[in-house]
UniProtKB/TrEMBL annotation:
Protein's organism: Campylobacter vicugnae
Domain Carrier: 1-89
The organism's taxonomic lineage, starting at the top: Bacteria, Pseudomonadati, Campylobacterota, Epsilonproteobacteria, Campylobacterales
UniProt cross-references to SUPFAM superfamilies, sorted A to Z: ACP-like
Residues forming coiled coils: none
Gene3D superfamilies for the chain: ACP-like
Domain of life: Bacteria
Protein name, as recorded: Carrier domain-containing protein
Length: 91
């Protein structure tokens, strides 16, 4: 399931950024070479939440207080977001 989540995140990021040069170590937000600014991250989150529901049949909110109050942001990289989603799906 973890690889399905990671692949889904990568697929959406590639689609939104029109780039094939994205992998699990790509930074999503918060660094100079991040894929998204704050507005782009919102669009990415909306697309990803819809795709996660379609793929797993479970509503996952990535913009809720739980996600935003983490001591380490789940939006640092594709890998950190994949780990966060995996844990959320298994709660």
């Amino acid at each position: 399931m973890q690889s399905r989540i990671t692949n889904l995140i990568i697929e959406i990021a590639k689609e939104l950024k029109n780039s094939n040069n994205i992998d699990e170590n790509s930074y999503l937000f918060g660094s100079n070479d991040a894929l998204f600014d704050s507005v782009g991250l919102i669009e990415f989150i909306v697309e990803l939440e819809e795709a996660l529901y379609d793929e797993f049949g479970k509503d996952i909110s990535l913009s809720d207080e739980k996600a935003m109050s983490q001591s380490r942001s789940p939006f640092i990289s594709i890998k950190t977001l994949s780990n966060y989603i995996y844990k959320s799906l298994n709660e």
